[in-house]
TrEMBL record:
This is VanZ-like domain-containing protein. Residues 86-154 form the VanZ-like domain. It holds the Pfam family VanZ. Keywords: Membrane, Transmembrane, Transmembrane helix. The chain crosses the membrane at residues 12-30, 37-57, 77-101. InterPro entries: VanZ-like (IPR006976).
Length: 221
C-alpha cells in the first residue's frame, strides 16, 4: 500500500539515497554504445526503480498488521476511490516507460511492472515491521500504470521511427559534414592542384626521354 499521507516525509530522502547508490549503474548505461534515446532511458531507469522502492517500502509509524494477510478492499480510504489510486498508477509509469525505451520489449516491461508490484505487496505482507498493508487494488492500479507507461513509451518509439523514416534512414546532419564545413572556417582555402602525382611523374619522365634523344641527335650530327 502506498502510504502517501505518512510516507511522504521520508520519501524524498530515501529516493535520493537510493538514486545515489545506483549512479554508477546509470553512468555505465549512459556510456554504452547505441542510440541516444535507449541510453538516456537506461540512465533514468535506476532512478525510476528507486522511486518505486522508496514510495512503497519506506517504513511508516503505522501499527503492525498480521503476517501474510492481504486485503481486497476496493473502495473507501486506500481503495480505488481514494487519492492513492491515481498515485499508484502514476508511480509505475516512469519505471515501465524507461524499461520499454531502454530494452524495446513492451510485453516484458508490462510483465516486469506487474511482477514488481506483486513482489512489493508480498514484502509488505510478510514484513509487518514496515508498517505497510498488502492490498489487492494496489496490484491492479500498479498494473494499469505499467500499461500506461508502456503505451507512452510505444508512442515515443513510433514518433521516433516516423522521423527516421521521413529522413530516409539518414541523419539530417552527419558528422563528416559538420567536420568538413567547420574546417572550411578555420583553414585558409588554397587553389586545387592541376595535376595528380602520377601525371606529374609521367610528364617528368617524358621530358627526360625527350632531352635524351635531343642530346644524342646533336652528338651524332
Amino acid at each position: 500500500m502506498l502510504e502517501t499521507y505518512r510516507g511522504i516525509p521520508h520519501l524524498l530522502d530515501t529516493w535520493l539515497v537510493l538514486t545515489g547508490m545506483t549512479l554508477p549503474i546509470a553512468f555505465s548505461a549512459l556510456r554504452r554504445r547505441g542510440d541516444l534515446v535507449p541510453r538516456l532511458a537506461a540512465f533514468c531507469l535506476p532512478a525510476a526503480f528507486a522511486l518505486v522502492v522508496a514510495a512503497t517500502l519506506t517504513p511508516t509509524p503505522l501499527r503492525y498488521g498480521p503476517v501474510g494477510m492481504c486485503g481486497a478492499r476496493m473502495e473507501g480510504f486506500g481503495g480505488l476511490s481514494s487519492i492513492q489510486a491515481p498515485l499508484n498508477v502514476l508511480l509505475f509509469v516512469p519505471f515501465t516507460g524507461m524499461l520499454t525505451l531502454a530494452g524495446g520489449r513492451r510485453a516484458e516491461a508490462i510483465a516486469a511492472g506487474i511482477g514488481l508490484s506483486a513482489a512489493i505487496e508480498a514484502i509488505q505482507s510478510l514484513v509487518p515491521s514496515l508498517g505497510r498493508t498488502c492490498q489487492l487494488h494496489d496490484v491492479l492500479t500498479n498494473s494499469l500504470g505499467s500499461v500506461c507507461g508502456v503505451g507512452l513509451a510505444a508512442a515515443v518509439q513510433t514518433i521516433a521511427h516516423g522521423l527516421l523514416t521521413a529522413t530516409g534512414g539518414r541523419r539530417l546532419v552527419t558528422r563528416p559534414y559538420v567536420v568538413e564545413h567547420a574546417g572550411l572556417l578555420v583553414v585558409r582555402s588554397r587553389p586545387p592542384a592541376r595535376h595528380r602525382r602520377a601525371t606529374l611523374v609521367a610528364s617528368r619522365r617524358r621530358n627526360a626521354v625527350g632531352r635524351y634523344h635531343r642530346t644524342n641527335t646533336q652528338l651524332s650530327g
